Amino acid sequence: MQTQTAQIQGLIDRIGDQGSAHQYRTKSGSTQTFPVLIENHQQGLKAIFQVLSELSLLTTISDLLCIGHRVVHGGEKFCQPALIDAAVLAEIKKTIPLAPLHNPANTIGIEEAMDYAKGVPQVAVFDTAFHQTMPDYAFRYAVPTQWYAEQGVRRYGFHGTSHFYVAKQAAQYLNKPLETLNLITLHLGNGASMAAIAAGESIDTTMGMTPLEGLMMGTRSGDLDPAIVFYLSRTLGLANNEIDNALNKQSGLKGICGENDMRAVHKMADEGDQQAQLALAMYSYRIKKYIGAYTAVLGRVDALVFTGGIGEHDAWLREQCCSELSVLGIELDAIKNQQSQGDLREINQAGSLAKVLVIATNEELEIAQQAEQCVVG
């Protein structure tokens, strides 16, 4: 795999807000932050291209090979990156009911980029695409078939770009073709999901029709009895949007102990806060339970891969998730687990049947690579 290095990485945050800011970091490590009012996506693109020009990274917009766009939801239509034209954009808009919080913003970004950088190929890379290899018995819900056929009610999965990236990195490290490997990948951040990868393809993942299903997360509940929604509506008189907000933004770690930043939760737990201790126990238990389930589904696990902000940096959590899993062939090395150097490291004992790897994810690089491949083949 050819090594590629980002010349510049940046972020424009809180577009349309008084607190908006433009931040970027160059290849040399220099970081600049400009508190500046960015009223809309068009102004954001203008600010980005201005910086690229000032740093002599871009002479004209036409110098660009392509622009890659992360699109959260591609529905069943997209299982690969897509070169964006009017027809593709129309299909992306059709998925807005499936991702009402994300796809509208993704669409605006695409439209503004197409207008601002006329003639530059635009490529959509979908969070859901990697999971489109799931078999029907894994992605279907046991609900009326009409719901699936007409409303698209099924499991789609998310974080696919990250799961695919670290799976490829694991294959490279193990010096084996991805198509020969069975992996369990764990993307653990404020949002969290796991994937069961058989012969290089996703066959199951924890998130569902929306990112709410699956693991306990920073502010999302993860798996729960759907009848709880009806119970809360009857007993508390909560409207659907109130319950939706509570399950997505007031639950998870935050719902149990009041904090969704894992570092703060650890600090509280270390200071004896019982709710924080409970939150950590719940969080790691859910992950451990899915490791067991996915091991059963895969039959053989070549590697367990931790990634994401929490997965990469939380040694305590990795130890809890892997404890007493020797029966599954997973044996963590406590000393290696505490080490934090490098973007890819092996933290299992020498005799572990399954490797345990920590791999830094790079979704931006994966989007760039997929966009390039879509354009040049």
TrEMBL record:
The protein's superkingdom reads Bacteria
Recorded GO molecular functions are:
acetate kinase activity; ATP binding; magnesium ion binding
Q: Which InterPro entries match?
A: Ac/propionate_kinase, Aliphatic_acid_kin_short-chain, Aliphatic_acid_kinase_CS, ATPase_NBD
Electron transport listed as a keyword: no
Q: What is this protein called?
A: Acetate kinase
Matching NCBIfam families: ackA
Please indicate which residues carry the site annotation Transition state stabilizer: H159, R220
Which residues participate in substrate binding? Answer: R70
Asked if the Swiss-Prot or TrEMBL record annotates the protein with the keyword Metal-binding, the reply is: yes
The gene from which this protein is expressed is ackA
Q: What does this protein do?
A: Catalyzes the formation of acetyl phosphate from acetate and ATP. Can also catalyze the reverse reaction.
Q: Which organism is it from?
A: Methyloprofundus sedimenti
| Cofactor(s) listed | Mg(2+); Mn(2+)
